[in-house]
Design a protein that fits this description.
Distance between the termini: 13 Å
Number of strands: 17
Strand content: 5-15%
Mean pLDDT: 79
Radius of gyration: 24 Å
Largest sheet: 3 strands, antiparallel
Helix content: 25-40%
Low-confidence stretches: 1-8, 16-22, 24-30, 306-312
Strand order of the largest sheet: 1-4-5
Shape: globular
Structural class: alpha+beta
Length: about 350
């Protein structure tokens, strides 16, 4: 009996030339073959297909801003025109700039050509402007830019997995600047909201003072939902505060009230509205990863989806994570083994 006919488990790993290889017979590695990358990519769909479920921007709009934001202007010097700041060590200036919020950082970059050159030399700003444009524009649109620290957002771009469930996280929840996955956007309790109007009633603090104290977001009219689930729409303008910040304020005032978990409209829509796509950045390879979804899981999920539009769980994988998943997915295993029976002698 040939080794190929006794294959019981296919183990995929990175191979040379962008291919994948290595499979096992009875638990022992005995045969190696080149599996084209295009074949494995046929078993996955890009994670960006869910971008329109959250706060979404057209690529052309992002490219238009990306071409100028945090970019050096020709003829500018990073040291001239900075006044007393030119005497500070560049490393110290970079540390200070990373602790600024998005609005302050943008204002500083508009002070002079030298300030723009200095900002463009800080990796946090340069890489966020290149790969995290959706999160930057959404922060300004929601009026959250004064409360989103540049260094914190860059840290989340370096993180690969969801902070709550540990799965690959292709999104960021902007009110708390937290890396998350699509399932946690929908289900995580801490992603609930309370309106500023109700907090004024609960605390007795004047509205203007409260809005100077708490990070708040302004709602954006639109329809937000995961595909094949009931759409949640936002039509009225409102000012909202994340549960984490509202509970902290109420607790500091001695109140026993906590923001309840929002399971219905409009809280459902607010969750998607305040989240957006944030790819994982690999500093070692200077590449980004939006994640992929297993097409076998997607097909199975859609074929069993209820007509009552109940939430459909979904999971994204990183490039390396998908290789591990493909080694365990029965449907992918069967298809690859069928291909090997035909391709190998």
């Amino acid at each position: 009996m040939s080794a190929l006919s006794r294959i019981d488990k296919l183990s995929l790993s990175n191979g040379s030339g962008g291919t994948f290889r290595s499979f096992k017979v009875a638990g022992e590695e005995c045969v190696s073959a080149e599996v084209p990358r295009s074949m494995l990519e046929g078993f996955s769909t890009p994670g960006t297909v869910y971008a329109q479920s959250v706060c979404f921007w057209q690529p052309a709009d992002l490219d238009q801003v990306r071409s100028t934001l945090f970019k050096t202007i020709k003829g500018s010097s990073p040291r001239r025109g900075l006044g007393p700041f030119r005497k500070m060590p560049p490393e110290l200036m970079a540390m200070i700039l990373c602790q600024l919020d998005l609005r302050s950082g943008l204002c500083f970059s508009q002070v002079s050509r030298a300030a723009r050159a200095l900002i463009s030399g800080v990796p946090d700003y340069r890489l966020l402007g290149q790969h995290g444009m959706s999160s930057l524009m959404t922060s300004f649109r929601l009026k959250l830019a004064p409360h989103v620290e540049v260094g914190a957002l860059y840290k989340e771009m370096l993180a690969e997995n969801c902070r709550f469930c540990g799965k690959f996280g292709g999104f960021v929840f902007l009110p708390t600047v937290t890396r998350c996955c699509m399932d946690c956007v929908e289900k995580e309790i801490s992603f609930s909201f309370e309106t500023v109007t109700k907090l004024v009633r609960l605390t007795g603090i004047p509205r203007a003072q409260l809005m100077r104290t708490l990070p708040y977001a302004r709602t954006i009219a639109g329809s937000y939902s995961i595909p094949r689930t009931y759409p949640a729409s936002v039509s009225l303008r409102n000012w909202i505060v994340a549960k984490e910040h509202a509970d902290a304020l109420l607790g500091s005032l001695g109140s026993n009230y906590t923001v309840p978990e929002g399971k219905k409209w409009p809280d459902k829509a607010w969750r998607y509205m305040t989240s957006t796509v944030l790819p994982h950045y690999h500093p070692a390879t200077d590449t980004i990863d939006f994640g992929v979804e297993c097409i076998c899981e997607k097909t199975l999920r859609e074929s069993t989806a209820s007509k009552s539009y109940r939430p459909v769980p979904r999971c994204l994988y990183s490039r390396e994570g998908f290789l591990k998943h493909a080694s365990e997915c029965d449907l992918i295993q069967k298809k690859l083994l069928s291909w090997l029976q035909v391709s190998l002698p």
